Amino acid sequence: MNDSTRKDISNRIIAAAVEMRATDIHVDPTLKGFHVRVRVDGVLYPHLDLDRDAGVKLINQIKADVGIDPGSVFFPVGERMKWVVPETEVDLRVTLVPCVSGPKLAIRILDPNRFGKKIPDLGLTDEERERLDRWATEMNGMILVTGATGCGKTTTLYALLQELASEARHVVTVEDPVEYELDGINQIQVAEEHDLSFAEGIRASLRLDPDCLMIGEILEPESAQLAVNAAVQGHTVLGTLHSRDAVSAITRLRNFGVADHQIGAAIGVVVNQRLVRKLCPDCSSQRPPTEREIDLLARHGRKLPDLVWEAKGCTHCNGIGYLHRTGIFEVWNLQECDYHRILNGSDEESIREGLSESDYISIFDDALEKIKSGITSVEEVSRASLEMPWSNR
């Protein structure tokens, strides 16, 4: 296999992945060679198999394109490169680790054509959008976007940043990694190898006189305290946390050692979200819900309609039954009563009980509405692994 052939294989694989709207390519070592899979709308699909010689040469070609020593077997940080495919240019983040069966290659595809979602594109209800618009207009307190890894938190933050960015505002971000470059926004890339951690990045950014500060991930106590302090001091702060729902973000901050009075003074809005696949509009069909689906909703005090939508598969969606993804959300604009509960040290259950007595829309309520309207299926909502700590109502 000559250089041209190796380049041709890598071009074909990456071009096919981009055409399929894949976000990731996995080249996995096997006993016989390499197995290539692509992730589309959050789900991995098999793509092709390569013999061992072809797979190793493919990986070496990717190394050469990235500018990595051909003898290197380990670059876990994620080397970045640009790749030109027909009609577009994408950024690739390449990670390689040695496994028992051989080198494992993962490629994240950062396609600028998929970037640039605005708040109306995220899948929020009109009421949820109004709550975020109100926060963006008033810039009142810190906004936290929470959820599991890969649930679209960064996309939501970037959409919010585009609402906030203007000539009259100085916006700084601290990220690891910087997924997309935003024009007019100063983005700081965390680099632990150069002693630039999230905490140091936050400290540095606060010396830059920012109006708005976005923190890619709040992962440890020092970053949490710095973020809250910045919000209390009057900066508009956006950040992400890992939590199962909006209310449990308060517990996460408490576990990081942030005092209740600081949480109450800092937090304005908490968004919790998941991503679900959207049913293909050309082939989805209706049927009565199964007993399992009825029981799933009944456990949370909800009732399915007499008919639900399900995936079928057609040429439009490549036989999958789903096309693209959307978010399911809960948007918690903290009110005076919420602040009182936090300041009094109320636990999650007490805070949720207070919210359930209001017109608060939980993430499960939002998911149910998207099921009823045929946007997604019960199966997808179940696959999203929603943890519902809410009392039945």
Structural commentary:
The structure is a single chain. With 393 residues, the chain is an alpha/beta fold. The protein has 2 domains: 7-113, Beta-Lactamase (2-Layer Sandwich); 119-384, Rossmann fold (3-Layer(aba) Sandwich). It is 34% helix and 28% strand. The strands form 3 sheets. It has a 7-stranded mixed sheet with strand order 9-8-10-11-7-12-15, with helices on both faces. It has a 6-stranded antiparallel sheet with strand order 3-2-1-6-5-4. The protein has a two-stranded antiparallel ribbon with strand order 13-14. Helix 6 crosses helix 8 and helix 10 (336-343) runs antiparallel to helix 11. The longest helix is centred in the first third of the chain and has 17 residues, at 3-19. The protein is globular, with a radius of gyration of 23 Å. The model has no long low-confidence stretch (mean pLDDT 91).
